[in-house]
Amino acid sequence: MDKNGFDTSCSGTLIPTLGARKAFLPDKLPPQGVDLNSILPILSRATQAVGELKGIGRTIPNPLLLIRPLQRREAVSSSGMEGTYTTLSDLLMYEAGASIPDRQAENREVLNYVRALETAIADLGDLPISARLIKRAHKVLLDNVARHRGAKIEAGEFKRDQNWIGGTGTIETARFIPAPPEQTPQAIDDLAAFINRTNRENSSPLIDAAYVHYQFEAIHPFGDGNGRVGRMLIAVMLIENETLPQPLLYMSPWLEKNKDLYIDLMFDVSKNGNWVPWVEFFLTAVAESAEETIRVAQKIQDLQRDYRERFQTARRSALMLRIIDLAFERPVRTVSDIADELGVTYAGASNNIKELVRHGVAEEINWAYPKLIRFPGVMEAMKIE
Predict the structure, then answer these.
(1) What is the value of pTM for the model shown?
(2) CATH number of the domain that residue 25 is part of
């Protein structure tokens, strides 16, 4: 990027870097002189949808019924945008212990995303959103990944070399060159200062999330994994600022469907300072993702109610209902896992599972070792297939 069309309307500073090119360092947040009046209708819709989602999160007896499948769907979509492909069904089977030969490395990496997100959320108990928290999540994300997927990058550390985005593989053809390594630590500290500022109660947390997500991607602080860390940061922010009590909002499936526009609008912020279209797009993603999650929650609750009504009779084992509840938390399991979770014998668990298989609620995956038990109705309700 020499100037590559960037001029005085861009939202940052151009800094000389490799090959007589110029890198882009975004201005500190918040952006100045941005009139957001036109986005008030979509802000209202997004705020209402997130409020409804927050209410659902408080009324579900076990929020893990939603959180676990949503996190895994998020991991698959977010990783897919970066070139790591698997399916939610394969991911769940891999997590349950099955070997998926064609996608073993991919499933490991996508499961890292789930663990990195869980790590960041757990760290909120001790840390503010900061360089340290972000680095810890990145370290988990890139733990033991294949060489071509970032292992040559130092996991958990900011970039040491200039990175770039787009083009034909060289900096001379790059579409966008983010902040140089020397400016990256301070840029992230400035971003954390904005997130943790004392007067943020006067701002919309959703608009703040739009600003922060753009800013993180413009800085691009790591050699690899920036998109995934930036998207998980959205969920972390909304928990930290108490917009949501649990990690229930995940936008990557929606963003994946609109990937080109997603990238173009962020680039337009950098190049031309066009914040309004980006914020409007981001809020639309929030609204539609929250509304979709509400629909999924209703389907899960309806199916769980149906199953309990079908099997809650005097002739049924109480253990069967407990197995059904476990299925909604994680719909692919081994018999041993179910027995251990419930503190019963393998035979006791197996006999009840056979009854659920007979009724079409569960199915056996005999090609896997150890044998897996899958609950297809639950997976369908969660949009896992």
Answers:
(1) 0.91
(2) 1.10.3290.10
Three-state secondary-structure class, residue 263? helix
Q: Alpha-carbon distance 371 to 96, whole Å?
A: 10
What would the pLDDT profile of 346-357 be if each residue is shown by its tens digit? 999 999 999 999
Count of all residues that appear for the chain in the document: 385
Other CB atoms closer than 10 Å to residue 198's CB: what's the count?
5
Among residues 57, 114, 74, 63, which one has the least CA distance to residue 294?
A: 57
Residue appearing with tokens 């076990």 = 62
Count of structural domains, the chain: 2
What does the alpha-carbon distance between residue 47 and residue 43 come to, in Å, rounded to a whole number? 6
Hey, what amino acid is at 85?
Answer: Y
In 3-state terms, what secondary structure has residue 298?
A: helix
Q: Rounded distance, CA 231 to CA 213, Å?
A: 7
* Residue 341: C-alpha distances to residues 55, 159, 337, 349 (Å): 29, 42, 6, 10
Read off the pLDDT of residues 15-70 as tens digits, 9 standing for 90 and up: 999 888 899 999 999 999 999 999 999 999 999 999 999 998 777 777 777 788 88
> Residue 1: what pLDDT?
47
Within-domain flag for 304: no
Q: Are residues 342 and 250 in the same domain?
A: no
Distance of CA 284 to the CA centre of its chain: 17
Identify the domain containing residue 337 by its residue range. Answer: 312-381
Query: 131 pLDDT band (50/70/90 cuts)?
Result: very high
Q: In this structure, is residue 77 part of a structural domain?
A: yes
